[in-house]
Design goal:
Layout lengths: L3 H10 L6 H15 L27 E3 L2 H11 L3 H8 L19 E3 L7 E2 L2 E2 L20 H9 L2 E4 L2 E4 L12 H4 L3 E9 L2 E8 L5
Antiparallel strand pairs: 1-2, 3-4, 5-6, 7-8
Length: 207
């Protein structure tokens, strides 16, 4: 099946076990068949199963609220930081972040590509009415917060406290030059074990 689920779980749980050429093939598939300007297809429109359902959370009509977050994780882990940031909306007027103009997260959104229903210029939140039957509100953050903290800023938290993952040439490719000059992010008020942390991320720390 040409689904995002294999991509999501392999990059979450088996990243270290995948050979580089498989990682690149999966990234290529993800960008070619699943990603759109403001959201994604959970199932590729090229998969023959698309005719069997109009569910927006797991079919080609759209994707569950957390699936793009897994995509960002995979892109960042394989060194495609520029693609991940552009997809979020950094450096352009639309992206994944544009859907937040519609209020709290929904269970799923339409895919946001050609022929998709849109709202405020982004993939529209799927309604609760038949045949979509998607809930209006989802858990706060929907995995995006942890991906930004852990994968982009490189911060890890366990029972011992906070640690920082070094970003070296062996685990991060250098982003495209055009992005290196634009990336300047700060994280404020991260509370861990009764301590407050702030973090800064400059363009050259992604190399």
């Amino acid at each position: 099946m040409r689904t995002c689920l294999d991509f999501n779980y392999l990059f979450l749980a088996m990243y270290e076990d995948l050979p580089d050429h498989i990682k690149e093939e999966m990234i290529h598939f993800y960008k070619r068949e699943l990603m759109t300007e403001t959201w994604m297809h959970a199932l590729s429109p090229l998969d023959p199963d698309t005719k069997n359902s109009v569910r927006t959370d797991h079919q080609d009509d759209g994707a569950f609220v957390s699936w793009p977050a897994f995509g960002i994780l995979g892109l960042l882990r394989t060194g495609h930081a520029a693609d991940a940031l552009r997809w979020i909306g950094v450096g352009r007027d639309k992206g994944l972040a544009t859907v937040t103009r519609q209020g709290p997260w929904g269970q799923a959104y339409f895919h946001g590509g050609t022929s998709s229903l849109l709202e405020f210029g982004a993939a529209m939140k799927a309604p609760k009415e038949y045949p979509f039957i998607e809930r209006y509100a989802e858990l706060s953050g929907a995995m995006y917060v942890s991906v930004i903290i852990e994968e982009l800023f490189g911060l890890r938290v366990d029972w011992q406290g906070l640690s920082v993952t070094e970003r070296t040439e062996t685990n991060r490719k250098t982003p495209q030059t055009e992005w290196r000059s634009r990336l300047d992010a700060s994280l404020f008020n991260l509370q861990i074990q009764n301590r407050i942390y702030h973090a800064d991320l400059k363009a050259d720390t992604l190399a």
